[in-house]
Specification:
Elements (H helix, E strand, L loop, with lengths): L3 E5 L9 H17 L4 E4 L13 H11 L4 E8 L5 H14 L4 E6 L6 H6 L8 H11 L18 E6 L2 H10 L3 E3 L8 H11 L10 E9 L3 H19 L9 H6 L4 H12 L2 E3 L1 H15 L3 E5 L5 H15 L8
Parallel strand pairs: 1-2, 1-9, 2-3, 3-4, 4-5, 5-6, 6-7, 7-8, 7-9
Helix pairs in contact: 1-2, 1-12, 3-5, 6-7, 8-10, 11-12
Length: about 325
């Protein structure tokens, strides 16, 4: 059975607060666990009013405490923002508290704009491969006499995240499992996965193991799914314009005074997502999985109302591909 997993950005919708978004994340975690999803990952973004997930380790602790079985992790921790010792300490703590349930997905981008990255006080990080290896080394024991307590003996499952060939090749050379961001870099998916497999050298894994994250929304019809997804496309347009904001409602998105350029950009965003009725999504997902040959599928669903997201995840498991529901 192909495992299904979820990426949650803890979106802040218009008319709601970031605190409510975090409570929604807890409710979503319990819901997807009850449906048999394999993993629940949270992202790291800074300075974005529409995303409450800026402290992955803290949020992971809350989500793991609210659930019992599902693996919880980072999609991902952005290494330019955190010293390797800190990452090892935080995730060693999480793995000690929730043994066998913690994933550490590592990324090499800051996940924010340049000014915010400067305020995170890390400066330029030139040796990402070395930093990844240092994080991993702390889980095995002291490094140059420095112990990352309680990391030793409490290692999470380490993944490398990416949206380009660089990360794919690095994951292969390090022998790590690789998660590709198909949801915002779909044009690079197949080349990156091919490069990962060709570059693979046995390391943490004996054989390559890959997962893609796709943007998916299942509803009663394509028209309904597109309407629910339009706010996310508008949010992405505004982010690219340097004007990030909260996630608008479908009515707000439809009432937006779209320029031709904005409409074209949003449509391209919607075209790269997998939207529609259960039958439509089943066909599109089948094609994607056949093309990519990945061992796992992670989905991210953007909708203004939490209930619409919860229903999409339920339809995905129960009506789209019931045979891939992990844990069933």
């Amino acid at each position: 059975m192909l495992p299904l997993s979820v990426l949650d950005l803890a979106p802040v919708s218009s008319g709601r607060t970031s605190a409510q978004a975090l409570q929604d994340a807890v409710r979503l975690a319990r819901h997807v666990e009850s449906l048999g999803y394999q993993r629940l990952w949270v992202a790291e973004h800074h300075g974005m009013p529409g995303i409450a997930s800026s402290a992955p380790a803290v949020l992971i602790a809350a989500l793991a405490a609210a659930t019992q079985r599902i693996r919880v992790g980072s999609g991902g921790v952005m290494l330019p923002n955190h010293p390797p010792l800190t990452v090892a300490e935080q995730f060693g703590t999480l793995a000690g508290l929730y043994p066998g349930r913690i994933d550490l997905g590592l990324g090499r981008a800051p996940g924010t704009d340049q000014r915010t990255a400067q305020l995170l006080r890390r400066g330029n990080v030139d040796d990402i491969p070395g930093e990844i290896q240092l994080v991993r080394a702390f889980f095995d024991g002291p490094v140059e006499g420095i112990a990352a307590v309680p990391a030793e003996g409490n290692a999470p499952e380490v993944w490398l995240l990416g949206s380009s060939g660089y990360s794919a090749q690095l994951a292969g050379l390090l022998g790590l499992p690789f998660a590709f961001a198909h949801h915002f870099s779909s044009e690079n998916t197949l080349p990156a996965l091919d490069l990962y497999r060709r570059s693979f050298r046995p390391g943490a894994l004996a054989e390559p193991y890959s997962m893609i994250c796709a943007s998916v929304l299942v509803a009663d019809s394509y028209e309904q799914a597109r309407r629910l997804s339009l706010p996310g496309a508008l949010s992405f347009v505004r982010l690219r314009q340097g004007k990030p904001g909260v996630l608008p409602s479908p009515d707000e998105a439809e009432a937006h005074d779209w320029t031709p350029t904005e409409r074209s950009f949003a449509q391209a965003r919607l075209d790269s997502a997998i939207l529609g009725s259960p039958d439509q999504v089943r066909a599109k997902l089948g094609d994607l999985l056949e093309q990519t040959g990945v061992q796992e599928l992670m989905v991210v669903t953007s909708a203004h109302a939490l209930d619409d997201r919860l229903r999409s995840y339920e339809l995905l498991v129960n009506e789209v591909r019931p045979e891939v529901a992990a844990g069933r």
